Amino acid sequence: MTTPAITIFRGFPATAAYVWSPFACKLEARLRFAGLAYKVDQGAPPKGPRGKIPYIALSAKDGDSAPETVSDTSMISEKLVDDGLAEDLNAKLTPVEKAQDAAVRALLEEKLYFYQTYERWEQNYYPMRDKALAALPLPVKFLVGQLGYRKMSSALYGQGTGRLTASEITKFKTEVWDHINALLTASSRKRGSGGPDGMFFVLGGSKPTEADTSLFGFVASGLVCDAAPETRRIIRSLPTVMDYADKIHRHFFPDYEHWDDDDGKGEK
After folding, report:
1. Which of 127, 77, 129 is nearest to 102 (CA)?
2. What is the pLDDT of residues 206-242, one digit of tens each?
3. Is the dihedral of CA 135, 148, 227, 240 positive or negative?
4. Pairing relation of β-strands 6-9 and 39-41?
5. What angle do CA 20, 224, 163 make, to 5 degrees?
6. Cα–Cα distance between 53 and 221 in angstroms, integer?
7. Which of 60, 113, 201, 249 is least enclosed, having the fewest CB within 10 Å?
């Protein structure tokens, strides 16, 4: 079977570096865990099938039709598996392990995501605006930034995070990373140096699962995002989390800038 050309639209200019979106980094990890080649491009939310970043374009099998676009990282992963392009990372998990995998992803994507969104858009609005809207001219950037800020603030308030104090959000955010660190510490002790390049994974197995795509996405994006200094500080205070991410980076992303490049600033 001919593998279609895959393009990931990440919302940021295409470079060999991690971007600020945890879901874009998650998606890249998913493809790299599957050994699938891909290109990256900027794209934009309005161009995606669900109005959000990231999304992918799969070249048509006949080579003539328009590429198929798919969004939502979980649905993209399912699509790749259903089309026989990627192995099901969770196929060999027990029902209990699958529940644990889903719980880790929910902790990150349905809880931590909103705490980090608050940090980026409420506490560090200007660096977040300037990065996310870098392609826009200044007058338009100001207007779109304000509209985006109001929309994000309203969403956070409706979701519940916006009703918390900054100190409460920091507390809950730190607790999430402490939980992740506990899981990785147990996995590291279990696996030792038995995996390729000494890698260990969040559920303690010898291979990554879907939870690892999410976790690596949140770690990598957190380390390079200049609009999330508190998250970066928390992650860097956890040596096991840093070791986990560093090993995955060196094995699966050797062509990418490391987050310690450029004096720790990460993506330029």
Report:
1. 77
2. 999 999 999 999 999 999 999 999 999 999 999 999 9
3. negative
4. parallel
5. 60
6. 14
7. 60
